[in-house]
Amino acid sequence: xxxxECYLREIAEDIRNPDDPNNIRDFQTVxxxxxxxxxxxxxxxxxxxxxxxxxxxxxxxxxxxxxxxxDVLMELRFPAYNLIKQVEDxxxxxxxxxxxxxxxxxxxxxxxxxNNKGRILSxxxxxxxxxxIFTNALYNYGNVVHGIYEDYQLKYVWRGAAYxxxxxxxxxxxxxxxxxxxxxxCQTAGTWHAIPKSSNxxxxxxxxxxxxxxxxxxxxxxxxxxxxxxxxxxxxxxxxISKNLPKLRCTHFVNLAIWLSTRMGYQTLYYMSVxxxxxxxxxxxxxxxxxxxxxxxxxxQMNLLGNFKEMEILQYHNELLDAYTTLDxxxxxxxxxxxxxxxxxx
Length: 346
Hints:
Structural class: alpha+beta
Largest sheet: 8 strands, mixed
Shape: globular
CATH class of the largest domain: Alpha Beta
Number of helices: 13
Strand content: 15-25%
Helix content: 40-55%
Mean pLDDT: 91
């Protein structure tokens, strides 16, 4: 076993989020409280909200030591959701519209959430509606939650596709990103959702675009690859912070890992060393930025690097390639020091 392999294993263990049971319990308490008052605030939300689904780094159990964020899908199951038609956006590969013309069963959809002509669900109208529910719920039912040791004050902000609740106490601060997920039926089996996602292409129709998601399948894919992949996912998150690559997110790494598992096989990834798998993932990232394209696992037409500017693509590629060239030489260096290896992850 090389020094590089030993060091990576040690670093992956050191940067692991401790997942203190009390911290997890406080997260669950805040999450449950927020979802409860949302249902109390709006009768229609109470009808269509079915369940919450954990996703992201906490769901995959790959959080690192300074990660105090959680991601939660809010499953919205509209009446006649099985009749919602998914229409591909020809101008924006990978994006789609949700056509409610056959599933428009009530006035809420027709008058408040969809456009009047085509019954296409509007993500901007959906956002304004949910935003008002969060704002009014905290105002009407209170923004203080009792934790294990002390109270948390809840602060709310909308950012992108997420409705973020920040829980602040004297001892700890953490945040939860709540993301709406419209329940849909796809041709393939499984639980599928449509998540609001705007494209960067000009035109008013970007206010109606969604992307598909299958969180359950994603979690299963990663779990089948074993513990070493989870170590690598932690290392990559620490690596991107160390190299100041903030637009690289856990979702990019997970998506890349799933593509790798489908190409090489789960068993291959399962038995790879941490160092070999880490270098392979880093190489794949270099290739993705060289091509300017990282296909989304659930719709290969969608480019997960689509929100990067051209100069950012070049900058990220150069940074990744320089790091890969250096790190790829480490397995053959018997005198490699721990400090030199750690410098890429702190």
